[in-house]
Task: structure prediction
Amino acid sequence: MKTRLKRYRDITGRMDGLLSANPIITYGLTLPLAVMGTVDTRAALGLSVALFCINPVAMLLAYLMKKVGLGREVYMLIISLVSSLMLVQISDIIGGIHSQIFSLMGIYFPLLAVNTLTFFLITRCDPQKSLLNNLLRSIRSSAGFAVVILPVAAFRELLGKGSVFGYKLLDGFTIPSVLLPFFGFILVGMVCALTRFASRNIKYQLLRRDRRDREAAAEEAAKVC
Amino acid sequence: MPEFSNRFFEKLAGQRLSYRQYDDVRLAKKGIVLEQNKEPALSGAIRLFCSPEMLEKEMEDRRPEDDTITIAKKAGIIEENTGQSLYLLLEKARDAGCKLIVADALDDEPYISSQLAPAMQMSEQLVRGLRLAAEAVGAEGLRIEVYKELGEIKTQIGQELDGIPIQRVGYGYPADNSLVTQHREERAVVFGAGALIHLARAVDRGLQQTTAFVTVAGNGVAESANVEVSLDKTLGELLREFGLLEDTTRIVIGGSMRGFTVTNLDGTRITPLTRGVLALREAFKDYNFTCIGCGRCASVCPVGLAPYYIYKFVQAGRYNMLGNFDIDLCIDCGTCSYICPAKLNISAEISRGKREMLNYMMSRQKKEQGKEEEA
Amino acid sequence: MNLMNSRPPHIRSRESNFSIMGDMVIALLPLYFMAYFFYGNHVAVLGAVSVIVCVLLDVACTFLSRRRVGILDLSPVVTGLLIPLMLPASVELYVIIVADLFAIGVVKQPFGGLGQNIFNPAVAGVAFVALTWKTQVFSYPVPIQSLGAPAARLVASPAASLKMGATPNYGVMDLIFGNYPGPMGATGILILITCLIYLVVRRTINGKTTLAFMGTATVIAFLFPRITTGRLESVLYELTSGVLFFGAIFLINEPTTAPKAEPPRLFYAALSGAVVMLFRYVGAFEEGMFFAMILMNAFSWLMDMKYEERKSRERRARYEDTAETV
Result:
């Protein structure tokens, strides 16, 4: 009979990259994308889709190259080149989301070729585990990235332009300086702080409930004897 | 880890008794001028609160050929600043070859005047005691030291007392620490005024020390005065004699800045070290203020430390960093706590930090020794 | 009789956080009266709303951080009173509210609340609002003429004229009494001098810091005038335009964000004076005080630590490892 805390740790451990070890919140990777790519929800969606495409391919290549035994400089260089080629191909898909998406993403779309999340994943790619394991981890990390930047982008776009995904929701009152980089940093910092606070709180509550269960069980055992 | 002297560990090992345990720190700044509140205790007559059997008790084993130091030993006189027996201090001074005897009538803490009032009102005994001590030690110079910033007092303090110069010293609290270096250079030894008066009585009239001079003050007693109280009285008896009020919240003995509170009144006796009993009515309401970083504590610290940093590190539990802030130079004067507008217990926390740091350093030493033994 | 224990020292000075912050509040209220005289009812509404929002948010954040809530500490009141005084009287209510929320909710509370903030909350709040609604924050109503309808006619302040290199045409009397368009609380120079004297006499702030700040600003205004009608005129207009003098009294002397020990604090004030003038001369906005203060606040800690290290060497040199003689 597993304790609640252990079950929670199992769940978050299995969702590694999404619920725990989140690339932005835990490791602080891809901060420029999180800060400047989140001025608009469409841009955030575009970046997330692009990452979803790049990361598994990069992981596959890294797995194969590590199995062969190539060094880090080699596979990183090759994967960056492959990523940039992929970005050219993906741009058709992403252009289909919205017509102005490239102007909204600006320079951060081409920068995806050398983004820190991909590098982090391919250096941590473990050739001793199965390929499926590594691929799933890359997908979970990309999902973790998307889960963080989409709400942040929605919030900033709502406050800054009064719209979400291009559909105007608020009329009149906007705070344009929310779209500046400094507010992006503040917002990402607050999201990190809040999620850490929540996770610590959850663990503490589970610990307390476990302790109460244990004490109740001990009392029961004492009564029987 | 910075190099701390052996004195640092000695200071932490035992209970701090006298300011003179911090004689290796030279002060950087003048102190702050506190509200003294010495009247009406200072100028009023010294009362006598003595049990009949303790009044004018003669020494049993006095012999005519005894010298001053032996008389001091048999009379059991205790010097009120250090708590040591007077005869031991006289012997040490004689062996060290001191040149100047100083009578300590400083009383730089607010409310306390238990050395100054006897010095002014029993001046012949003080002068006689001073001369006897000088003769016993072999010193030529004599001096009486009185605090400078006494505020508005009704007693006139002259420039000399029967040929002995009275020097007004100290530019603020703490005054005694600022004089330690000067005394060392002049080869001077300091005795409390009360001890010298008891010495004069012992030599001239053969009396033991059965009383001590104590100031009773504060807004929790109906009348404040200096008292000569016998050593078998309890705090409760003394305070009730002076009209202890019902809504008193704190009883402080030993001095308003450096003393400690007592809650068991009838179980605490008066000792020569008591010096003053304050009954205070205002309790510190829990204002729940935090440090706002005003920096007043650093501007008044006589040693020139940065108490706000030390406080923050002690509160955070990072005792290993305290060495960088020279925590061993703190003289526990309490000025930082006095001035803090947030009413934080800075001085108490720094003392706690010193103890924790000692524990930390000793545990690290043990670990290193353990590793050496393994290797 | 309930006897309790306390730690030494058992007597304390009469100053407390409440009295320090209370003095700041008392010093800020005459500025509100002056602004009310010049600009009418809207001033009172702005001040009241600002204070209420700041206090509520502060209490809520302290409660959420599981710290003990205390409203005796008037620091959110001071922040709430400071923010509208740096903005024009014609500003909309939502501008003040956003500035308050940013000041308390982003700059003060997440860093640990009172005493732990790195940046001055009032300054950062106004800086955020100045970035967002630039035209609203830098267009001022004309005093007395726009009583009742402050937003009717908005003009630029002397600071904007200086930025363009033109001499503002307000006489010395107007400048001293505040009869010219400018931030609500920063125009009445005479009242500000009175507030400064009050605070210095009550020992709430240290007059030397203000002097260092104004001194550096004066020197730079004298040596590098932006206008062509003479150096003394340049000094007069530079020192009385914008939030400079107001900041020299209330923003530089904020206890939490300035260095704690005196020599680094004077250095910080002098350097701030230089940086403010630099932002004014070559910056994008006509008033550089807000951004200069944020920049300097980031270095307060460094100045303190460097000074502490130097002082530690001096203290150690004075330490004597001697034995007791008696």
Observations:
- The radius of gyration of chain B is 22 Å.
- Chains B and A do not touch (no CB pair under 8 Å).
